Amino acid sequence: MATLRNLPQDMPKLLAELISPKKNQIISMALAQSEHLQITLLTFADNENVSEEEYFGDTMYYIVEGEAIITQGENVHHLKAGDVFMVPAHVLHEIAAKGAFKVLQITVNE
After folding, report:
1. Which domains, from first to last, does the chain contain?
2. How far apart are CA 101 and CA 16, in angstroms?
3. Where in the numbering of this chain does the Cyclic nucleotide-binding domain appear (predicted)?
């Protein structure tokens, strides 16, 4: 069973304020993790990327702040703050920074 963690309980905060970028790094904060669910908040420094990854379940990317590029084979998708995009399970894809950005990633497996 997944339980939520690393989220404010005493007072509301902006999601983007929960994680801070660091030069030349990708920082992640797990918000929930179980056999069937992973929720992670990530921040990418400018020019950082994760190449050719695939996940066990369908993965939703919600751009919290900044802009990102998701590439699936020859398909290139430019996302900006507020955009949401889903990559089906076991599909190779790359996510890259177009400037620093923050993304909420939710992966669900049945």
Report:
1. 25-108 (2.60.120.10)
2. 10
3. 44-85
